[in-house]
Amino acid sequence: MDLVEELASCSEKLMNILQHSAIGREVQIEQINELLTKRESIIEKLKQAKTNDLEKHPKAAQIIKMEQEIKKGLHQLFTLIKKNIKELNEKKRFHQSYVNPYTHLQTVDGRFYDKRR
User: Fold this and answer.
1) For residues 85, 89, 90 and 94, what is the CA-based torsion angle, rounded to 10 degrees?
2) CA-to-CA dists, residue 63 to 5, 40, 83, 108, 111, angstroms
3) Average pLDDT over the chain, rounded to whole?
4) Quick check: 50 and 7 in contact, CB under 8 A?
5) Helix 25-49 and helix 3-19: axis angle, to 10°?
6) CA-CA distance, 13 to 10, in Å (whole number)?
7) pTM, entire model
8) CA 79, CA 117: separation in Å to the nearest integer?
């Protein structure tokens, strides 16, 4: 299999993983990382090959379209993870305010400083 077809198959696998999130998030992220590193190595090999007829390859347009979809899917996954982290931090903050509701009200009132000796 030549590099362009290998890149296309790797991109298809990555797109399928991004679109179908039936598996657990940890497993999905691991698979995404593996495929991204594989794609990166394939792209580096393509850059080193310096073939000028890459744009003429029949799968070149398909790879470009998949690349846009992959970027969109990765961005959605990233925003979902950011949203979940934000919600988790909010839950922690609300839990802390439930455990000790007067933390924000602690002041120095009620102290007496005797100036006499």
Assistant:
1) 150
2) 9, 14, 30, 65, 71
3) 85
4) no
5) 160
6) 5
7) 0.73
8) 63
| Helices 60-99 and 3-19: angle between axes, nearest 10 degrees | 30
Burial class (CB in 10 A: 0-12, 13-18, 19+), 113: exposed
- Cα–Cα distance between 51 and 42 in angstroms, integer? 14
50 in the Ramachandran plot: left (φ > 0), alpha (ψ -120 to 50) or beta?
Answer: left
- Structure tokens that stand for 27 in this block: 């497993």
Only one residue has tokens 């007067």, namely 102
Instruction: List pLDDT tens digits, range 22-67.
Output: 778 889 999 999 999 999 999 898 888 776 667 777 888 888 899 9
The answer to whether the CB of 8 falls within 8 A of the CB of 66 is yes
Of 69, 56, 55, 58, residue with least CA distance to 12: 69
